Amino acid sequence: xxxxFAASLLAASALTPAAASAQENxxxxxxxxxxMRAEIARLNARVQELEAEQAQQEAEVATQVAAAVEAAVxxxxxxxxxxxxxxxxxxxxxxxxxxxxxxxxxxxxxxLNLDAGTFSAPDSTGREDGFNSEIRRARLGVEGDxxxxxxxxxxxxxxxxxxxxxxxxxxxxxxPVTVNxxxxxxxxxxxxxxxxxxxxxxxxxxxTDAFGFERRLGVSVxxxxxxxxxxxxxxxxxxxxxxxxKAMSADxxxxxxxxxxxxxxHLGASVHYTDVPQGDTVxxxxxxxxxxxxxxxxxxxxxxxxxxxxxxxxxxxISGPFHAVAEGFWQSTDMIGTMNDPTFFxxxxxxxxxxxxxxxxxxxxxxWNRTRPANPVDEGGMGAFQLNVRYDYLDLSxxxxxxxxxxxxxASLVWVPTDYTRFLVNYARLEYDDAxxxxxGGLVDYAVDVIGVRAQIDF
Length: 459
Hints:
- The chain is an alpha+beta fold.
- The protein has one domain (111-140, 159-458): Porin (Beta Barrel), CATH 2.40.160.10.
- Helices cover 17% and strands 49% of the residues.
- A hairpin with a 2-residue loop joins strand 6 (164-174) and strand 7 (177-184).
């Protein structure tokens, strides 16, 4: 036992130096690992610093490139449109109206009248009646202002597959005075001066066409000293389509147009003189209301004349949905080779009422104007409906001239769905005395019935 214990002590004393050496090695390894961890942490921190520097450099380069591009390619100029500070303003009134600096403006304009209908005459007259249709008007044009108080208007018509100039006007306005040069309407009657866009019947009163009212080339002056007085006058030659021509005419018109409360009153008078060129003739005739027929049942035939003198009176009244109007016109002809100088007469009386609430007939500057429905179709309403009746009289017989007499009884229904669209339905019974086309047995007193419809758009 003692020997075994002694051997154990000897072995323990032999192992002690080895254990001490292993402990020392382990300590060195741990120190080296700690040093390596510290180095790795330092390297990671440096990598993060380098990445941050690179990102900053890339941002600086991108900023420099964007600045260079912006300097090389300037931004587009703002569109010259609708703000009051812009050089050009565009508004809309049926068509775009462009207004520029200094008083320039430009607006396209136009209208389209599509007519159809029928008329019936006694079969024995041999006249070609029945259904017919036509493009009554197909007009395109422009109008606007020029700096300095000047203005312009030019319009052409493609009706009947022929191109004709309707208006070609240069105007100058200074306060209450307007001067017009070019082809434009003479100052002959309320009915004639009112645009076909606002008429209450498909065609104007019979006397306006029968007595040859038309646009002519000339110069005129319009003076409006107050809001209630209008004075118009001018000197004219022929229509552009008849040039070169030698006809000369003078026309004048005065209108008194006060507002009485909410009502509009119109009173007017006009005078006209035309010098008929030597060798020319005059002729007065008229269709049975509608234009799509060339038949005329009253007609003076060609008459040798040296001059014409006309005088007209006008009266109209608007009160809410109701309007009434009457005109009369006397046309005297200085005949050549006879002491009998005939005087012919035409006139009409009309009344109308809107069947829809809030609607009234438009009026401005001595003529009828646009009707704007109080509840148009494009806003969910039904538009404006207007019912009109008219008595239209024309007497082309006087002295030795027997051209016939017309008594016309007419009615129209007008639908205005929007400001710029209109539909019309007309009926007329035209009773003739001394018609130029005789019926069976030599009868020259008979009646003709007419129905006409129109679809219209304008801008």
